[in-house]
Amino acid sequence: MNEQKAIQRLKNHDIGGLELLVHKYQVKAVRTAYLITQDIGLAEDIVQDCFIQAYRAIRGFDATRPFEPWFMRSVVNAAVKMMQRSARQVEVGDEADETLLAELAEKVESVESQVESLEVQRQIWDAMKKLSPRQRAVIVQRYFLAMSEAEMAKESGTATGTIKWLLAAARERLRGLLMERSEE
User: Fold this and answer.
1) N or C end of the chain: smaller count of CB under 10 Å?
2) How much is the pTM?
């Protein structure tokens, strides 16, 4: 069964069509939700709820469009809403810069540099935790889901300029947090 047939089965109220979609998108969706919530259990719950919501809302889905962006948008939105609702924003002090990350990745040549790399990854994760859920969401959409700013704007119903501003603010915050950390 392919994705189109699975969607058609769902539209015909056959929940069996959900199996292929879960198999195909669950891991990526949980990772996406986790990157925003920083809680694996919560991420799994969010994704499960999103699959249920997709089943309920599939009649309104345009089957000529790809399922993944539609579904992943619901995962991102649900994760952000959950974080905002629960006020579980964790403060982070460092922000990441693509150049800084690339330079650090080049250092992984020896055991020492591998240990350093693990420390840098930990620092980046610590910094990501300090971003707001919305800032984490745009970072995840751009760098984990590899969405363009135009795609992010279209999927969220937001102006491209707003997405650019959110992304710039998130990167700046992440960069500042990482710079503070490196000066310690």
Assistant:
1) C
2) 0.60
